Write the structure tokens for this entry.
Amino acid sequence: MKEINFITTENGDDIIISLCSQGTNPLDVSSFIMMRTPKFEPLLEPHERGICLSWEDEDDIVVIADRISINRNEIHIKTRNKTENHKFNIKQISDEDYKSLLKQLEIINFDKSAIIIKD
């Protein structure tokens, strides 16, 4: 399970949640990204709409979230294609980041395209 140290969020044309993991070198940060661009989604086929998931270095792969389970210790993301699941330890993020993450999940899931379970 990947350990997350902090998160970043963005609300603009894109709605973004980045789960960030820092290595031993402070400059060594990797991010798992959840993203939507609501103004362009009507142009997509229905099966292509939803919360897109990717690692920051995998631009060509589009995977859509189906179910997100979250509690104060971890977040578990299941995908529509059922071949990928992502589990992250979020114990180390601040309480402020956790509250921000919960709020941003509601924003990014504006059309209830994914099931979100908060424990």
The two ends are 18 Å apart (CA to CA). Residues 95-108 form the longest helix (14 residues).
